[in-house]
């Protein structure tokens, strides 16, 4: 165990400083300018580190632990907590925590300094009922009968909708043609087809 790891283990009580897990712990140097010191590193479990480093692996419910760790007295823990809450803020509850969090100007600059800019974090991601990411031009199938307001017909379950377009400002809506009508469909009622 390196001197840094020993100091981090002592600081954290041999627990992940983010979620409190006690196994598979490792040093995570907080980018972008970490020098591998106590002031720019955290002690974290492999699960947390994997999710920090790969946005595709993020399980929003895992990060409810930030409700406690965001109040850490150690700045690198606060920075990582802020970044993860920022990444997840479209979930709703992380935005509430972000609103409570305070970082001084220097810390906020550090928190925002990774390649994951706010634009990236704000990017709206459309997902179908199974959690598959949808893109413009995809084909989907309706998974329940939908009454189409204003058009006086019901879009039947199993109806294929080809070449959908995403509603750019709402992750829960897509647009497509059903029975010749251009309609808005909620993503929770569709399943992506290959």
UniProtKB/TrEMBL annotation:
Signal peptide: none annotated. It holds the Pfam family YjdM. Coiled coil: none annotated. Residues 7-53 form the PhnA protein N-terminal proteobacterial domain. It comes from the Bacteria. Keywords: Hydrolase. This is Phosphonoacetate hydrolase. GO terms for molecular function: hydrolase activity.
């Amino acid at each position: 165990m390196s001197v840094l790891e020993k100091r981090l283990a002592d600081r954290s009580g041999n627990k992940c400083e983010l979620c409190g897990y006690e196994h598979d712990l490792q040093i995570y140097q907080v980018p972008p300018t970490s020098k591998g010191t106590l002031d720019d590193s955290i002690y974290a479990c492999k699960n947390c580190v994997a999710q920090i480093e790969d946005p595709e692996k993020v399980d929003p419910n895992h990060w409810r632990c930030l409700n406690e760790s965001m109040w850490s007295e150690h700045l690198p823990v606060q920075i990582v907590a802020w970044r993860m809450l920022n990444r997840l803020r479209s979930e709703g509850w992380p935005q509430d925590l972000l609103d409570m969090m305070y970082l001084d100007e220097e810390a906020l600059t550090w928190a925002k300094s990774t390649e994951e800019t706010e634009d990236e974090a704000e990017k709206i991601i459309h997902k179908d009922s199974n959690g598959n990411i949808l893109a413009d031009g995809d084909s989907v199938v309706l998974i329940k009968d939908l009454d189409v307001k204003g058009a006086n017909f019901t879009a039947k379950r199993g109806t294929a909708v080809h070449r959908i377009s995403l509603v750019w400002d709402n992750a829960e809506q897509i647009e497509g043609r059903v029975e010749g009508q251009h309609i808005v469909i909620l993503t929770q009622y569709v399943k992506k087809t290959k």
